[in-house]
Design brief:
single chain; mainly alpha; 76% helix; binds hydroxy diiron-OXO moiety; iron; iron storage; Ferritin-like_SF; cytoplasm
Length: 168
């Protein structure tokens, strides 16, 4: 059974994943309105992935005899100024989420809650993939010319991002 402290940190993570889903959704809408249909498609798919992360945490809490808290979601941040900022903000967000996962690992280790420790390892691996994915997209954007990208190279970038496979 989960301790109150572990239940609390897992509920905090559940909330973070729900907020992450909302961020990707909002940025997807922004990207679509800017004409980046491929990027929007990618962000919408990723929003769904974040929701799946939320569900994963929720199910684990229930499985371990805890009570998931389903609260409201935070309003997403303001629209990014441009496509660079869009991915920089997403990268920052993923780093922040990685740190939250590390807090779960630390607490479960402290409490010798090895089931939660083991559960959190899936997320440790997932965060490695997510950070690598965003870094890779940022590299592609750099190759496209970064802030000096032409509309042709951005068009190509957008179509490539739209075709990216989901990682899980
Ligand atoms: Fe849930 O992995 Fe991104 O935030």
């Amino acid at each position: 059974r989960l301790s109150k402290k572990v239940e609390k940190i897992l509920n905090h993570q559940l909330e973070k994943e729900a907020n992450a889903s909302q961020i990707y959704l909002a940025y997807g809408v922004w990207a679509d309105s800017e004409g980046y249909g491929g990027v929007a498609n990618f962000l919408f798919r990723h929003s769904q992935e974040e929701r799946d992360h939320m569900t994963k945490v929720m199910e684990y809490i229930m499985e371990r005899g805890g009570r998931p808290k389903i609260g409201g979601v935070e309003a997403p941040p303001a629209d990014p100024k441009n496509i660079q900022e869009c991915f920089e903000k997403i990268f920052q967000h993923e780093i922040d989420n990685t740190n939250a996962i590390y807090d779960i690992v630390s607490l479960s280790q402290e409490e010798k809650d090895w089931a939660t420790w083991n559960f959190a390892q899936w997320f440790v691996k997932e965060q490695i993939e997510e950070e690598a994915m965003v870094l890779d997209i940022m590299d592609q954007l750099k190759i496209a010319g970064g802030p000096k990208a032409t509309s042709e190279s951005l068009y190509y970038f957008d179509s490539q991002i739209g075709k990216r496979e989901d990682e899980t």
